[in-house]
């Protein structure tokens, strides 16, 4: 069994856990949490570099061999660690006080545990762990709705049931439990990803309660991780029906969320629909079962994580500056006072909806191509949805940044240095990734090839 | 330096300017008005020089097409995205036209926008636009063309909403953006279908001897005609151009008088061999062009402000260019296109001062200027005149039709989709 040269994964996860414990009662929790996040990022980056150098195949952690780094998870782990660090630095003062930084690190720990899992058990543990910060009320008085909590719990229970069935089937044969497994698997993914008709859960989560922890949780994209892992495990024929169903559900979600957003004016809800629609692209791509679609989906994963985190952080930064951003009655005209935040928002948004010259264009191009190959009509739905999403993005931008500045907004600061640098790094990734997509696509090609091979071996490729 | 090196340099310069200056500003640096003006003047002088050298060298070689292969942008499986530029007899005049007109507009804008709060923003967008336009005219495939195409679109929209503190430009920018996106959908479809059916979107693959005839070729041609109509404000997309006049005058000149509005016609000229294979595409171009030219000239006569009037006049001329392309008069259409772009830019730039001059002369003449026009109208029966006048005054009732038959149904469906969400979603959040 090949191992990483050093226990990077154990160290990184231990650093996150240490950060959670140290920042829980610290007098400067943000500082402690940011240091832990930065060190964890370095460790994950080292694991990613080693995994890339090793090529295809998995490198197990020498201390805890139920964690691994491979083509699928190595880059997202480093990327997610960078996002955690960025959110920690960007967070407004009121969101980085008390136990909130520890809570955000705990979310990061849970997602990274699920990413790094070499078997189903740590993955399930990661899913359950992600519910903990909200259950413990680590984000102060900001409460979630019962709908959000219920959907998240349902996904954890469904995944646990699916994994139990899978372990039972190893002794009795998959055919016996195949249909039931598929059902639980689909429920787990639909609940976690917020696919139609459960997209309302994600909208609720965005609308109510703390926004930045939701950004971290949403951008874990654990539903996609689960599907990708299931595909890599050379699934039997029953699983292909689950993938096909998820593919259609993802396409429906892309279309419905993009259309539904037209009836929204609250920034958080509009942003939620935009993020749901664009994030569902990756599930559509990964279930398209061809190399273009899968590569596009894996690239889109990084894009959505970066762009939507940028957008969410900017919306939150505006909310703490101007109270009327929560439910604006008219255009807020904030670009006059915060032109840099407006520019960051626009670039992140346009990348998210696939403006040529950004990484979003390349990722979507591959997904469209993959979908058109496997399901022509579904590919057309995705194309139409990008049109709607782009219009919705501009509506949101107009509402927040254009128009007459309200009289009560006398002076607000533009992007502060601690906001400016992470956002600049984010847009540099989005733009340079778009100008040189071969680099980013290269990071994902190993995983895409492995998934495609696994599906071909199971007779899934090209079965449409 | 060989032409193969000069062409990428010409295109990359404005793009690099945009990226570099934007990054400096985003990181907190200050780019002064004087510095921006100097950089712009130097850069556009260089661009004109480069375009001149390219043209001169190509003329010395007998205007043979020059292809610049820049390798693959990315390749996944069987799907490749090759980067290739093409400068030939069709693109060279438009490249030259772009750099010359944008340079004139840039020089003009340094004074026109002096001390405007959006001075830096305007020039950054102008650089991005130049990059997009040059890319459109030199792209060797539909894949690359759409990169420039959408870059032009987004800069256009941001310049329509340039005076962002007024509600009207903001509303109109959204309208323009929506029109562009809907039209671009057809181009995206054409690109993906071309990949799907022919395995390529390069001009050589689509338009060459073994090109794309048959029903598939016709479908791609029709989709591209609709996309071109969207970009040139023709046919069903003709409502956005007058709304786009909210931007500053120099941007109106370069976008809606000169370059952006003509990119649709350029696309049609580029894909002419593909269009010739399809009588539906040919017919569509002629009908679209004629209908737009007729409505444009009608509405143009009832416009109360100079810029909107010029916008409809431009729309009319481009309608005629479409008809010329449909009839196969390509060289004539190209000459019409270039001359119209130059004339219209001059008109747009001259309009503000011309109105002032007119009012001064009018006052000096004691208000005794007699109105002009109303020659051809008088040949029509009174009832038809009234009907046409109402049609023109209501701008073809375009806005009402779009609002009632497109926007309202989409919003109704959007509201209906809330059915799948629990009522609690309407509850106002009070916890953050």
Automatic annotation (TrEMBL), chain A:
GO cellular component term of the entry, any: plasma membrane
Pfam families: Proton_antipo_M
Stretches assigned to the NADH:quinone oxidoreductase/Mrp antiporter transmembrane domain: 152-388
Domain of life: Bacteria
The entry's keywords: Cell membrane, Membrane, Transmembrane, Transmembrane helix
Range of residues in the leader sequence: none
Keyword Lipoprotein found: no
Annotated membrane topology: Multi-pass membrane protein
Location of this chain's protein in the cell: Cell membrane; Membrane
Family: Belongs to the CPA3 antiporters (TC 2.A.63) subunit D family.
Record-given protein name: NADH-quinone oxidoreductase subunit M
Species name: Prosthecobacter vanneervenii
UniProtKB/TrEMBL annotation, chain B:
Gene Ontology BP, a term: ATP synthesis coupled electron transport
Compartment(s) where it occurs, according to its Swiss-Prot or TrEMBL record: Endomembrane system; Membrane
Keyword tags: Membrane, Transmembrane, Transmembrane helix
Annotated transmembrane regions: 6-27, 39-59, 79-107, 119-138, 144-163, 175-198, 218-241, 253-271, 277-299, 320-343
Gene Ontology cellular-component terms listed: endomembrane system; membrane
Entry membrane topology: Multi-pass membrane protein
MF term (GO), any: NADH dehydrogenase (ubiquinone) activity
Domain NADH-Ubiquinone oxidoreductase (complex I) chain 5 N-terminal residues, every copy: 73-123
Residues covered by the NADH:quinone oxidoreductase/Mrp antiporter transmembrane domain: 139-360
Matching InterPro entries: ND/Mrp_TM (IPR001750), NU5C-like (IPR003945), Proton_antipo_N (IPR001516)
Protein's recorded name: NAD(P)H-quinone oxidoreductase subunit 5
Species per Swiss-Prot/TrEMBL record: Prosthecobacter vanneervenii
Lineage, top ranks: Bacteria, Pseudomonadati, Verrucomicrobiota, Verrucomicrobiia, Verrucomicrobiales
């Amino acid at each position: 069994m090949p191992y990483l040269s050093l226990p990077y994964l154990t160290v990184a996860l231990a650093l996150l856990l240490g950060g959670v414990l140290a920042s829980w009662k610290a007098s400067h929790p943000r500082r402690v949490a940011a240091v832990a996040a930065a060190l964890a990022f370095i460790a994950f980056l080292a694991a990613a570099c080693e995994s890339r150098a090793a090529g295809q195949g998995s490198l197990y952690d020498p201390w805890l061999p139920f964690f691994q780094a491979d083509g699928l998870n190595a880059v997202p782990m480093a990327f997610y660690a960078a996002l955690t660090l960025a959110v920690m630095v960007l967070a407004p003062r009121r969101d980085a006080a008390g136990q909130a930084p520890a809570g955000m690190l705990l979310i990061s720990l849970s997602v990274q545990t699920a990413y790094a899992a070499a078997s189903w058990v740590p993955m399930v543990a990661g899913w359950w762990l992600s519910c903990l910060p909200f259950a413990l009320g680590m984000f102060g008085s900001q409460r979630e709705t019962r709908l959000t909590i219920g959907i998240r719990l349902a996904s954890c229970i469904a995944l646990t049931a699916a994994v139990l069935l899978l372990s039972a089937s190893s002794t009795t044969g998959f055919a016996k439990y195949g249909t039931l497994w598929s059902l639980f698997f689909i429920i787990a993914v639909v609940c976690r990803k917020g696919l139609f008709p459960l997209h309302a859960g994600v909208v609720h989560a965005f609308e109510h309660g703390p926004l930045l922890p939701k950004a971290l949780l949403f951008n874990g994209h654990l539903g996609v991780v689960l599907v990708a892992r299931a595909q890599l495990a050379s699934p039997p024929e029953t699983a292909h029906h689950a993938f096909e169903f998820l593919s259609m559900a993802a396409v429906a979600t892309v279309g419905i969320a993009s259309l539904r957003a037209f009836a929204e004016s609250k920034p958080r809800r509009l942003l939620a629909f935009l993020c749901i629609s664009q994030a569902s692209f990756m599930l559509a791509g990964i279930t398209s079962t061809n190399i273009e679609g899968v590569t596009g989906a894996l690239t889109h994963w990084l894009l959505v994580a970066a762009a939507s985190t940028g957008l969410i952080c900017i919306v939150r930064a505006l909310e703490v500056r101007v109270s009327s951003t929560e439910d604006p009655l008219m255009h807020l005209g904030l670009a006059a006072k915060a032109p840099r935040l407006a520019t960051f928002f626009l670039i992140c948004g346009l990348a998210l909806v696939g403006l040529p010259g950004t990484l979003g264009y390349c990722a979507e191009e591959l997904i469209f191509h993959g979908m058109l190959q496997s399901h022509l009509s579904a590919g057309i739905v995705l194309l139409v949805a990008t049109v709607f999403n782009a219009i919705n993005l501009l509506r949101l931008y107009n509402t927040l940044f254009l128009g007459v500045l309200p009289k009560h907004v006398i002076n607000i600061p533009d992007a502060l240095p601690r906001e400016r640098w992470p956002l600049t790094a984010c847009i540099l990734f989005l733009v340079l990734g778009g100008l040189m997509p071969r680099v980013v696509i290269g990071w994902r090609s190993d995983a895409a090839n492995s998934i495609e091979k696994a599906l071909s071996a199971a007779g899934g490729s090209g079965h449409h | 330096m060989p032409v193969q090196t000069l062409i990428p340099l010409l295109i990359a310069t404005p793009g690099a300017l945009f990226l570099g200056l934007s990054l400096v500003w985003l990181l907190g640096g200050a780019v002064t008005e004087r510095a921006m003006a100097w950089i712009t003047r130097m850069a556009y002088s260089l661009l004109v020089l480069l375009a001149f050298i390219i043209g001169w060298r190509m003329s010395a070689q007998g205007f043979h097409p020059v292809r610049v292969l820049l390798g693959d942008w990315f390749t996944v499986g069987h799907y490749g995205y090759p980067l290739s530029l093409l400068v030939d007899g069709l693109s060279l005049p438009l490249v030259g036209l772009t750099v010359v007109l944008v340079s004139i507009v840039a020089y003009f804008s340094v004074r026109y926008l002096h001390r405007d709060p959006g001075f830096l923003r305007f020039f950054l967008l102008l650089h991005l636009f130049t990059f997009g336009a040059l890319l459109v005219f030199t792209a060797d495939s539909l894949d690359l063309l759409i990169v420039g195409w959408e870059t032009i679109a987004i800069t256009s929209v941001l310049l329509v909403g340039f005076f962002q503190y007024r509600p009207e430009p903001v509303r109109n920018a959204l309208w323009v953006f929506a029109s562009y996106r809907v039209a671009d959908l057809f181009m995206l479809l054409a690109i993906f279908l071309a990949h799907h059916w022919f395995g390529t979107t390069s001009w050589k693959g689509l338009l060459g001897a073994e090109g794309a005839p048959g029903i598939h070729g016709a479908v791609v041609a029709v989709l591209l005609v609709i996309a071109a109509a969207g970009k040139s404000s023709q046919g069903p997309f003709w409502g956005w151009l007058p709304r786009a006049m909210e931007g500053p005058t120099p941007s109106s000149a370069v976008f809606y008088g000169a370059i952006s509005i003509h990119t649709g016609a350029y696309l049609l000229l580029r894909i002419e061999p593909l269009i010739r294979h399809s009588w539906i595409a040919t017919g569509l171009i002629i009908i679209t062009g004629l209908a737009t030219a007729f409505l444009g000239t009608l509405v143009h006569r009832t416009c109360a402000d100079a810029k909107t009037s010029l916008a409809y006049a431009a729309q009319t001329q481009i309608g005629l260019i479409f008809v010329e392309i449909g009839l196969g008069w390509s060289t004539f259409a190209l000459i019409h296109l270039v001359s119209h772009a130059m004339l219209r830019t001059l008109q747009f730039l001259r309009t503000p001062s011309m109105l002032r001059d007119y009012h001064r002369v009018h006052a000096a003449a004691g208000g005794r200027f007699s109105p002009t026009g109303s020659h051809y109208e008088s040949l029509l029966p009174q009832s038809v005149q009234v009907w046409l006048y109402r049609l023109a005054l209501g701008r073809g009732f375009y806005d009402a039709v779009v609002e009632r038959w497109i926007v309202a149904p989409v919003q109704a469906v959007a509201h209906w989709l809330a059915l799948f969400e629990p009522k609690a979603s309407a509850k106002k959040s009070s916890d953050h």
